[in-house]
Amino acid sequence: MTQPFLPVTLEEAEKRGWEFPDFVLVSGDAYVDHPAFAPAVIGRWLEAHGFSVGIIPQPDWTDPEAFSVFGTPRLAFLVTAGNMDSMVNHYTVNKKRRRQDAYSPGGASEKRPDRAATVYTRKLKKLFPKTPVILGGLEASLRRMAHYDYWEDRMKPSILMDTKADLLVYGMGERTILEIAEALNSGLSAANLTFIPGTAFYSRELDTFDNPLVLPSWRTLQSSKKQVARSFLRQMDHNDPVTGQPLAEPYDTGFIVQLPPAEPLTTAEMDQVYRLPYLRRAHPQYDKAGGVPALDEVQFSLTSSRGCFGACHFCAITYHQGKTVQPRSHEAILEEAAAMTQDPAFKGYFHDVGGPTANFRQPACEKMTTSGACTHRQCLTPQPCPNLTVDHHDYVTLLQKLRKLPRVKKVFVRSGVRYDYVMADTDPTFFEELCRHHVSGQLRVAPEHVDEKVLALMGKPSKEVYEAFRKRFEDFNARENLNQFLVPYLISSHPGSDLKAAIELALYLKELGHTPEQVQDFYPTPGTLSTVMYYTEMNPVTEEPLFVPKEPDEKRMQRALLQAKLPENHALVRQALNKAGRRDLIGRHPDALVPPGDEVKKTKPAPPKSQGSRRKNNR
């Protein structure tokens, strides 16, 4: 018998014989019963362990009745903003409202509030003051401690202080939420749940905690950018389940306490999570709206791992998921893949097999799982650690097995390949297999920049590593007569990037003959070292001053330089080159980035109107 959707209405709950569910999960996303959507994972995980869960997806936050669909849950409300940070979901880096929300039915953009986790939690605390509210998901996880908020351009306290939630689950929450559920079910109150790894909470005192590391206070963080940098570095040092200590951030009336992260899931537990009875489609209530667009991107993709030891400074994955890579077994992935091939909509193509970094399928080194991640160095930058385990054999074998499944035409790798890890592998098998079988015409890689100073601040390898990979890729494709191309992802206006660095990148792109279709301005979001750089205007490690492009004109010029070939950017590029003292790059000679031109557009006078004529409205 096919497992039904988790209930979204009281009628659906009553059909299951529930008077009220154990948990009510309030989500900023539409309900898609698929393992790529966190509310479905948590709901199904709790269900598999004997707990009843009702889902309130995208409630009307202006209507109290919308939060009362199931009445009062027996144990707690669970709140998540959804798969994405609601502010990133709503606004571009220029703080302009986005027109579409891929996680809402039909792509509608008004289905969730700004700061959804905060709005939902405050509503629930007001409507159900005696019922525990437990926060989770990406938005809450990245705001578990005091953080810089780009949209308000100021420091904000822990989201626990803003919402008064009883407990916050950070990171990937299956292990933690199950321990919470079992503790609440045993009769413990939420106030007594001060021992569960992977949680943060408010406490008036620290007496009951074993040797907590006290961070700079909220008052100090408001007045000292240097202390903001130091605090975040300490948080990153203790973001490991093996070596992490409890952290305490002081406020006027008490402390936000963060316990060490939960242990990563074992391969068997990962398999269990992905074998839950997902229906792998959006709830039928969204059919009239055309479904939920975000499902299209992942419907025929396979998650093979979690965690990332790449630790790019502008990426929050390390702060959220941790450095320890957690793989699924081949058997479980092949089982899921075989089932997907039976879907009538399957056309023979798996769109992706990967995770945060596709070609990471095991921990960085043997000691990471027993001794924890190093705090004094990164695994891959500035050079690969001598202890790094570089081995693609397991991933290659998995891809080969997937290619042999009946009805499969192609298996693509699109979730990002860490090219410096590829270059560190002395065995060429993966590289050759990737090029021959798993590139859909274009291989997306992320050099992000070429200026060595900026690359170091990004936590990325040197330009020479990317150049070596690019040459190897192009040579192999030429030799094999494969018409395939690299598509480099680039970031403009990252902290430390001045016009000189942007011009260096523009010249490199000109040398390659490449004009990016899109350029991503650096987007400061909570939970990244680069965001700390942006706010503090210093290198957090050395505490040396750092140029940070913040002025709109500066950012527009840097972005235009990366697309200097486009006529609509010529005026901005000339402005940038004049400002940087590089007029030698303006002209019609081979080395020029942009042709000369008059920056003041002259409009031709309109022809005189004949008597009785009407001017046409040209749009």
From TrEMBL:
[4Fe-4S] cluster binds at residues 308, 312, 315. Residues 581-619 are annotated as: Disordered. Binds 1 [4Fe-4S] cluster. The cluster is coordinated with 3 cysteines and an exchangeable S-adenosyl-L-methionine. SUPFAM superfamilies: Radical SAM enzymes. Gene3D superfamilies: tm_1862 like domain (3.80.30.20). Signal peptide: none annotated. Its cofactor is [4Fe-4S] cluster. InterPro entries: Elp3/MiaA/NifB-like_rSAM (IPR006638), rSAM (IPR007197), rSAM_horseshoe (IPR023404), rSAM_sf (IPR058240), UPF0313 (IPR022946), UPF0313_C (IPR024560), UPF0313_N (IPR013704). It holds the Pfam family Radical_SAM_N. The keyword NAD does not apply. Residues 581-591 have a biased composition (Basic and acidic residues). Belongs to the UPF0313 family. This is YgiQ family radical SAM protein.
